[in-house]
TrEMBL record:
Species the sequence originates in: Streptomyces pseudovenezuelae
SUPFAM superfamilies: UDP-Glycosyltransferase/glycogen phosphorylase
Name under which the protein is recorded: D-inositol 3-phosphate glycosyltransferase
Residue stretches making up the DUF3492 domain: 14-275
Pfam families attached to this UniProt entry: DUF3492 (PF11997), Glyco_trans_1_4 (PF13692)
Lineage, uppermost ranks: Bacteria, Bacillati, Actinomycetota, Actinomycetes, Kitasatosporales
Amino acid sequence: MHVHDGARRSGSTRVTLLTEGTYPHSHGGVSVWCDQLVTGMPDLDFEVVAVTGTGREPLVWDIPDHVSRVVSVPMWGPAPDGRPPRGRSRNQLAAAYEQFLTALLDPRAEHGFAAALYTMARAAADGTLSPFLRGDRAIGVLTAVWNRPGLAVREARPSLHDAITATALLEHALRPLATPLPEDGVAHAVSGGVAALPGLAALERHGVPLLLTEHGVYLRERYLGYRTAPYRWPVKAVVLGFFRLLAEETYRRAALITPGNRYNRLWEEQGGADPGSIRTVYNGVDPGAFPMAGPEPERPTLSWAGRVDPIKDLETLIRAFALVRGQLPDAALRLFGGTPRGGEAYRERCEALAAELGHGHAVTFEGRVEDIKDAYAAGNVVMLSSISEGFPFTLIEAMSCGRATVSTDVGGVREAVGDTGLVVPPRDPARMAAAALELLADRDRRRTMGEAARLRVIEQFTLRQTVDTFRSIYLELSALGRMWTPDTAVELAEAGGDDSVSSRTGSMAG
């Protein structure tokens, strides 16, 4: 669904941002990052292909004039338009789908994933993929595949209900393939997974270079999410197999991968990315927009900012706070940030936990704050309790504001903090509480840490550095795309040096 359409300027470099659940329909760290890139480069021409939930999500960011188009791709809204294939086309698509499913379930057949995916992408462009996947033939193909002798999933005795569920999940996950594809410029997927699907298809069909930035590790977060998902193992085997092979294909085909931290880089290399195609680019903030915070509150206060979501693990933070209150009965915990649609039950669970521990009156969910700086200023110590992060904006923003921090050792947190804050293991309330008490007891140490944290941001993590780096990448990849053919991509790969973006585009040849 087109939610914004403007005029495209002639001659300007074109960047198509590929997002999922973030910009421009949602707030949060990745959305902030996208807005910073777009507003920081008014000389470039941007389009946005945004994978959304229902397609009814409103725009929550002001769209600059140089964003010529925003397309919403709803994964859970009405099915894409189209008709089921017939005759020979139906048989060809069924064969490709069988090859696709076999790759997901049989380690010996994984090499067939890419060819099957791109055949299905062409069917999506023709309007036949989604109707096919909603039909009985697709369910029959899956049932036949996962009941083959020798496949591990067969031992779980998959049912017809499992087949219907898994097929529906794949149909929804593949819907981004039906969106209009960029035909020139650069496609920039700001996460892995389904957001990268239009970029892979555009690379395959039009030679548009694909740039991948993972803030968190998409595949790792799918593993974490599906651990407690209400599906039987045969369904999880299909869906997680898809996400794993999609990640590997994206890593293999991207012209350049720009993780926000070295931790993500390790996952990407393990997933098959060529180390020469990876360049770490840290997130940045504007120190002028996040100046030193004012006086600390008189009451000992821990503050937290983010979206209320299980991956932020507020339950561990609340348990840690209960231990803090055992030593400092007057302490307060203030939680700033919105609750995404569908996350209400998690917030209620957190509120119930605080009440159950006897500290409900001291834990306040403040909701979204008009100026995020107020959230950091509200605490003597700023907390981060996540079980998965990339290079968290809230952390470097709090550091820029000169607040001492206690953070969990996930993703790029250690790279961000250095020695200017305390880092503790995730899911460890006792260690988190001990670190918070250590800082709450020492005003001078908090001040020294806060000053060092701000200096670290100014020296290493400024917005200007981030924007300038991505502008250079966009321009170089766009120039490369104009020269693209399978033969020239190979030639460039053989001729380029290790530090040249063009030397990393052999993957574009497939």
